[in-house]
Amino acid sequence: MHKEHGVVAPPTQKGRDQRQRIVNVAADLVFERGVAEVSLDDIREAAGVSKSQLYHYFDDKSDLLRAVIECQRTRVLGYHHPTFEALDDLDDLSRWRDMIVAYQAARSCRCGCPLGSLASGLAELDGPARHQLNDAFSEWSSLIADGLTRMVQSKKLRAEADPRTLAVSLLASLQGGLLLAETSRDTRPLEIALDTAISYVGSFATG
Predict the structure, then answer these.
(1) Which residues does 166 contact at the CB level (< 8 Å), separation at least 6?
(2) Shortest CA distance to 64 belongs to which of 138, 126, 110?
(3) What is the DSSP secondary structure assignment for residue 9, as one 8-state letter?
(4) Where are the domains of the chain?
(5) What CATH number has the domain spanning 2-202?
(6) For 137-165, how does the pLDDT look when each residue is reduced to its tens digit (9 = 90+)?
């Protein structure tokens, strides 16, 4: 096996597919129940694999959780990537806001952010996981900042706008809004948080 993104990848396609299937199942279970409420036996049973198969790919729960973080990193950034890769104006940000709110409403505001929930469950307990999650959030923030930078370059935002600061504001508002929506089972806190952050971006709009 060889290392890929800090985790061990099997040498064969069949092995990689089996390993990824286990990771996908684990990611879904952890997202639904929380890190502390999911055991390796839970994952093994849900994935339909034996204990020996599970330990063939992962040393322990911490090892599997490293892979879960990478899985959720890919999922979350993939979900947001199309918006910020093509970000052109404030209307695009409003559509992004509506997409997130609609998704949370469809889930009855359950579970919040896949990466955020991992951070709350692991940041104080697992130093390497915290660093891995920090890298994921940094990449997410950079994705947003790159889109805002193009808005500055196209003169949709004034030159004094700081894309990295605005990106942190948007991401922090999203995370806080998701948490409050989850606890209240109401999208309204999420709507307020995102509307306020987008309004701040809009304060730098030209014209």
Answers:
(1) 144, 145, 148, 200, 201, 204
(2) 126
(3) E
(4) 2-202
(5) 1.10.357.10
(6) 999 999 999 999 999 999 999 999 999 99
End-to-end CA distance of the chain: 56
Task: Retrieve residue 124's tokens.
Answer: 């104080």
The pLDDT, as a whole number, for residue 116 is: 95
165-187 average pLDDT score: 97
Closest to 166 measured CA to CA, from 181, 184, 146: 146
- Identify the residue whose tokens are 């790159």: 146
Q: Specify burial of residue 22 (Cβ count, 10 A radius: 0-12, 13-18, 19+).
A: buried
Here the tokens at position 103 are 């998704």
pLDDT tens per residue, range 33-92: 999 999 999 999 999 999 999 999 999 999 999 999 999 999 999 999 999 999 999 999
What residues have CB less than 8 Å from 188, skipping those under 6 apart? 181
Helices (H), 154-186: 163-184
Specify the pTM: 0.89
| Strand ranges in the chain using DSSP code E only, listed in sequence order | 2-4, 7-9
The position carrying tokens 């409420």 is 37
Q: Is the pLDDT of residue 9 over 70?
A: no
Burial 125-148, CB ≥16 within 10 A → b, else e: ebeebeebbeebbeebbebbbebb
Q: Which residues pair with residue 28 across a beta bridge? A: none
Q: Is pLDDT at 15 greater than 80 in this prediction?
A: no
